[in-house]
Amino acid sequence: MLDKSVAVLQAVAVAPCSLVELCERTALPRATAHRLAMGLETHRLLTRNAGGQWCPGPALAELAAPVHDTVREAALLVLPRLREITGESVQIYRREGSERICVAALEPPTGLRDTVPVGSRLPMTAGSGARVLLAWSDSATQRALLAGSGITERSLAEVRRRGWAQSVGEREPGVASVSAPVRDGSGEVIAAISVSGPIDRMGRRPGIRWAADLLAAAEAMHKRLSPSRR
Fold first, then answer.
1. What tens digit of pLDDT does each residue of 85-101 get?
2. pLDDT band at 143 (very low <50, low <70, confident <90, very high)
3. Residues 84 and 180 in one domain
4. Which of 57, 169, 194, 221 sits between 20 and 30 A of 129, alpha carbons compared?
5. Same domain for 101 and 207?
6. Total structural domains in the chain?
7. From CA 223, how far away is CA 230, in angstroms rounded?
């Protein structure tokens, strides 16, 4: 059974596939392929895209993360300076399906803070980090996640125009945040970098205060993720 499960993972790794395509690639009976794929999906080793096809799941990346995660490595070099400048909590988020996961975070040494532990899963429907990740997502993902949320396509267009997002009491009462996109070496947005803290300190327009420093930190991460730096 292990060999068959590995065959399913290898087949999906080639390209997203339907059940019919999975059977063709693995030569497994339909019932067996379906059972194995469903089991792997339950354990998040497989997931499904907007078209219902199976794709490699987030658990694969999580298992590999301790080995080599370039985003986390870059974050650990950039976040300390951003925390020092702002005196607030700083985080890096990546989107996984309908959620965003915190892959790196640092807290200020003293005072009230917005604690988001690494590994925390937050909704993609609230908060500046969600707005940034949504703003640079494909249109199908945007339509699926915007339904029923307080985020509009117009507001996402504004995020793309100015290059950052802010939120006040949106994800959690009393908390404000600012986020900016993190790009890889090819320019693709792969994460969001955020500063968050109590509204009393951050203010009701936190972007005015911290957007420039946040964009500088995002650019520092981009440079570290560029091929010339590796």
1. 999 999 999 998 888 99
2. confident
3. yes
4. 57
5. yes
6. 2
7. 10
CA 182 – CA 175 distance, rounded (Å): 22
Contact indicator for 46, 9 with CB cutoff of 8 Å: yes
The predicted model gives 1-11 an average pLDDT of: 89
121: nearest Cα among 138, 99, 140? 99
Domain boundary among 15, 43, 64: 64
How many other β-carbons are positioned within 10 Å of the β-carbon of residue 54? 24
Structure tokens, 6: 């590995």
Which of these three, 64, 92, 118, is where a domain ends? 64
> Residue 29 pLDDT > 60, yes or no?
yes
What residue numbers bound the domain in which 6 lies?
2-64
Over 90: is that where the pLDDT of 117 sits?
no
Q: Which two tokens stand for residue 146?
A: 């915007």
Task: Please report where in the chains the tokens 């339904």 appear, as a residue.
Answer: 147
Output the six-digit token pair for 202: 């951050």
Name the amino acid, one letter, at 66. P
Tell whether 36 and 141 lie within a shared domain: no
